[in-house]
Structures are given as C-alpha cells and as structure tokens.
Amino acid sequence: KGFSSTFTGERRPKGDPIFEALGATDELSSAIGLAGEFSSEKGHTFVDQLHKVQCMLQDVGSNLATPLSSAREAHLKRTSFSEKPVLELEQWIDTYSEQLPPLTAFILPSGGRSSAALHFSRAVCRRAERCVVPLVQAGEADPNVAKYLNRLSDYLFVLARYAAMKEGKEEKIYIKPEP
Q1: Which of 23-32, 43-52, 67-76 is predicted least confidently?
Q2: Transmembrane ranges (predicted)?
Q3: Measuring CA to CA, which residue among 176, 38, 177, 13 is closest to residue 120?
Q4: Are 57 and 29 in contact (CB under 8 A)?
Q5: Distances 80 to 21, 93, 130 between C-alpha atoms, Å
Q6: Which long-range contacts link 72-75 to residues 24+ away (Cβ below 8 Å)?
Q7: pTM flag (> 0.90)
Q8: Dist CA 108 CA 156 (whole Å)
Q9: What ranges do the domains of the chain cover?
Q10: Quick one: 34 exposed, middle or buried, by C-beta within 10 A (0-12, 13-18, 19+)?
C-alpha cells in the first residue's frame, strides 16, 4: 500500500526521506561491490577494505532505519554508529594519498575499469550523503553516519586514483572546450 516499516516498527510512506537514504546507501554498497569485483580481477590488495566498507554500510542502514524520534534505548544500543569507522577511513585516505602524485588538474572518471567503477561509487556515495544530511539535521540519524559517507567519498576518490596508478592506466584530464 506504499508504506514500509522502520526498525522501530513505525510505518512510513515509501517516499519518506529515511527510505530514500536507505535506498541510496544500498545502491552505494552495490556500486562498491562492482568496483570490488573489477579490482579483485586486477589483484588489488584494497579489496578487503571495500568489503569492510560494505559491512559498515549495513550498519549505516541500521542507523538510518532507526529514526531517533521513535527509537527506544534497546534500538539505539543495537544501531549506534561510532566515530571509529570515520577515523579508519581517514587513515586509509592518508595511506593511499601519500603514494599518489599531486593533482595538478581536474580529472574525469577514468583510469581503467577498477578506477572508473570506484569513481562511480564515489558519485553514488555523494548522493547517499545528500540524502542523509537532512536526516541528521532533523535529528533522526547519528551525525557520524553523515561524516562516514563524507569521508567515504574522499576515500573512493583517492582509491580510484590509486587503482589507475597501480594498473598503469591514464587518468583523463578535464580540458575546457574553446568557445
């Protein structure tokens, strides 16, 4: 009938912002799964990190499916989201960034299938973040969820560049068209 239930048992319309955020997060996990498969075919060692990210996105979804306005203490204990995964992403970003040449121009999503799939995942991540931020601002989701998605998009960008470099693939540079 166009309604679905949150983890707290509350019935909301399927178009509710919570379900939009859950859907975007699910799409993100799927995109990362595809990027992970391409990256695995190339023997990248970061594939285990992508799997860990997908697991964290399940926790993101649990937090989103538990609106703080209707959650009881038992719900909150099962679906809380800490800052620890955010800090881990920041460590991963630093590790890969140190190995990359500095950016001197805008790059386009490119650099081989692994890199392009990671860029696609980054774009989906940004959409998920845009869906989550209003929930955080409304007090319905943990602010660490939005922080995680924000840092995750940066991680995916750095990882896309790293994958292209490791595979010896060229990143396409943005060239401004002449008028």
Answers
A1: 67-76
A2: none
A3: 38
A4: yes
A5: 17, 24, 20
A6: 72/8, 75/7, 75/8
A7: yes
A8: 14
A9: 3-167
A10: middle
